[in-house]
TrEMBL record:
Gene name linked to the record: LOC111308834
Catalytic activity: a phosphate monoester + H2O = an alcohol + phosphate
Family: Belongs to the metallophosphoesterase superfamily. Purple acid phosphatase family.
Name under which the protein is recorded: Purple acid phosphatase
Transmembrane segments: 12-35
EC number: 3.1.3.2
Domain Purple acid phosphatase N-terminal stretches: 70-161
Single GO MF descriptor: metal ion binding
InterPro entries assigned: Calcineurin-like_PHP (IPR004843), Metallo-depent_PP-like (IPR029052), MPP_PAP (IPR041792), PAPs-like (IPR039331), PAPs_C (IPR025733), PAPs_N (IPR015914), Purple_acid_Pase-like_N (IPR008963)
Enzyme class: hydrolase
Keywords from the named record: Glycoprotein, Hydrolase, Iron, Membrane, Metal-binding, Signal, Transmembrane, Transmembrane helix, Zinc
Length: 478
């Protein structure tokens, strides 16, 4: 080889290695930027419009015609395993009957269940007669018709019971939070109803009517809200979670009993899971074990909620119900400049348990926007060790904030910058989500913004079950 050819070869090799080094450096820089900026902040910008309440004369608030006609009809699960339903409704003129007539689609034989009614007063408001009736011993995976208002103006509805609890039972849940009763609220509910994925049960993460936003906690707004959601809640169970707008603690007007309107109106099967209060409880439904917690009840050591949860988590049999889902109102991981760190003390108390028992997903509301986290935990931090940054943890849940139902307080639009590494996707839009369980190992999750077509998935991911298939499902690992 001549000197010139050797020199040329060395020059070319040097250029090659320089380019390779530059490429590696640029790649590392790019990756570090991506990591430091967390996940994705959506480029979609919703047109900023003030959220406005629907007028009280809107058809969604219409009172059913006829004397003492039942209104505000809604159902929820009535036992621990999905073989019972709590039917609730209100009569305004007189108590009337608390009886429910019901029959299966394949039977003309009508059965009868007897309930009870209650009333309450709140400042200058007196409620109608609030009926609750539990229908038990139902067959799984069966369509039932039911009638309320026996003796006056009867109204007929229907529901379908879930399949028998089992590890590979598919089931589709809808997710809604912080709904309120604005035009945007109506869009959210309509969007959910028209979603072709067809949610079978709504997991509602708190903040229902926003009655406390009105003068003197106008409890008439509890009535209008319940009439508004009846079109869905009378036909499929809504699993209730209490939020801060359900507290209704107003000593300035003499109201010192927290959660009074909420607990009178929305009964849940808390005793079936050995809970001592209706604000925290659990149910099994299909292949899911759902734990509901109260962000606004005492949860420290020795409190009833703490003691219940400590005893409840070991009871979850992942060979029977592989999917472990937790509902709460105040999020633990939140990168918006609203309600920042309000859930921190609860996180400190319960996050080690969530990691130990491999909770699959935690749904929360409170922040009026959408956000999905990576699988992270911050359980190593003990104040003095300095390990205060959340780290990837494949035993940890994905945390999803779905407080974007459309309420009167509007969207949370201010985000912390840069986007933290624990945040996978965030967007300030109204919408709902679907959690579609396929079998014991896989579930498909999707979030749907109101401004898109019914089938559009603005954000989505495949969940791999933490007990049966605990692999990293983040896009960078696949």
């Amino acid at each position: 080889m001549t000197y010139n050819s050797l020199a040329l070869k060395i020059t070319l090799m040097g250029s090659f290695y320089f380019c390779m080094a530059a490429f590696i450096v640029l790649t590392l820089v790019f990756n570090s930027v991506v990591f430091s900026n967390g996940g994705k902040t959506s480029i979609y910008v919703r047109k900023m419009e003030k959220t406005v309440d629907m007028p009280l004369e809107s058809d969604v608030f219409r009172v059913p015609s006829g004397y003492n006609a039942p209104q505000q009809v809604h159902i929820t699960q009535g036992d621990h395993v999905g073989k019972a339903v709590i039917v609730s409704w209100v009569t305004e003129d007189e108590p009337g009957s608390s009886t429910v007539l019901y029959w299966s689609e394949n039977s003309k034989h009508k059965k009868k269940a007897e309930g009870q009614f209650t009333t309450y007063k709140f400042y200058n408001y007196t409620s109608g007669f609030i009926h609750h009736c539990t229908i038990g011993n139902l067959e799984h995976n069966t369509k039932y018709y039911y009638v309320v208002g026996v003796g006056h103006n009867m109204r007929k509805f229907w529901f379908t019971t879930p399949p028998k609890v089992g590890p590979d039972v598919p089931y589709t849940f809808g997710l809604i939070g912080d709904l309120g009763q604005t035009f945007d609220s109506n869009s959210t509910l309509t969007h959910y109803e028209q979603n072709p994925k067809k949610g079978q049960t709504v997991l509602f993460v708190g903040d229902l009517s926003y009655a406390d936003n009105y003068p003197y906690h106008d409890n008439g707004r509890w009535d209008t809200w319940a009439r508004f959601v009846e079109r869905s809640a009378a036909y499929q169970p809504w699993i209730w979670t209490a939020g801060n707008h359900e507290i209704d603690f107003a000593p300035e007007i003499g109201e010192t009993t927290p959660f009074k309107p909420y607990t009178h109106r929305y009964h849940v099967p808390y005793r079936a899971s050995k809970s001592t209060a209706p604000l925290w409880y659990s149910i099994k439904r299909a292949s899911a074990y759902i734990i509901v917690l109260s962000s606004y009840s005492a949860y420290g050591k020795y409190t009833p909620q703490n003691q219940w949860l400590e005893q409840e988590l070991p009871k979850v049999n992942r060979r029977e119900t592989p999917w472990l889902i937790v509902l709460m109102h105040s999020p633990w991981y939140n990168s918006y400049n609203y309600h920042y760190m309000e859930g921190e003390t609860m996180r400190v108390m319960y996050e080690p348990w969530f990691v130990r028992y491999k909770v699959d997903v935690v749904f929360a509301g409170h922040v009026h926007a959408y956000e999905r986290s990576e699988r992270v935990s911050n359980i190593a931090y003990n104040i003095i060790n300095g390990m205060c940054t959340p780290v990837k943890d494949q035993s940890a849940p994905v945390y999803i904030t779905i407080g974007d139902g459309g309420n009167i307080e509007g969207l949370a639009t201010s985000m912390s910058e840069p986007q933290p590494a624990y945040s996978a996707y965030r967007e300030a839009s109204f919408g709902h989500a679907i959690f579609d369980i396929k079998n014991r190992t896989h579930a498909h999750y999707s979030w749907h913004r109101n401004h898109d077509g019914f089938a559009v998935e603005a954000d989505s991911m495949w969940f791999f079950n933490r007990f049966w298939h605990p692999v990293d499902e983040s896009p960078t690992s696949q």
